[in-house]
């Protein structure tokens, strides 16, 4: 598994791998800009599975 590193220069203090359940829970309490990225990722994953 790839090692993740927080990007302190962007005030990112914690990073972690998540499964789909974790992503859904995280979406309830995140910035709108991050939701845009998550939505694009979800669409890409969905397309790759069909």
What tags apply to this protein structure?
52% helix; 0% strand; mainly alpha; 50 residues
Molecular structure report:
The structure is a single chain. With 50 residues, the protein is mainly alpha-helical. Helix content is 52%, strand content 0%. The N and C termini lie far apart (25 Å). The relative contact order is 0.10. The model has no long low-confidence stretch (mean pLDDT 91).
Question: Which residues sit in consecutive blocks of at least 5 with pLDDT less than 50?
Answer: none
| Succession of helices and strands | HH
**How many angstroms separate the termini?**
25 Å
Helix-and-strand structural type: mainly alpha
Radius of gyration: 12 Å
Q: Summarize the biggest pleated sheet.
A: none
- Overall geometry: globular
* Helical content (DSSP H or I, runs of 4+): 40-55%
Count of individual beta strands? 0
How many helices? 2
**Mean pLDDT rating:** 91
How much of the residues is beta strand, in percent? under 5%
Layout of SSEs?
Layout: H1 20-27, H2 32-49
Q: What can be said about this structure in brief?
A:
The protein is mainly α and 50 residues long.
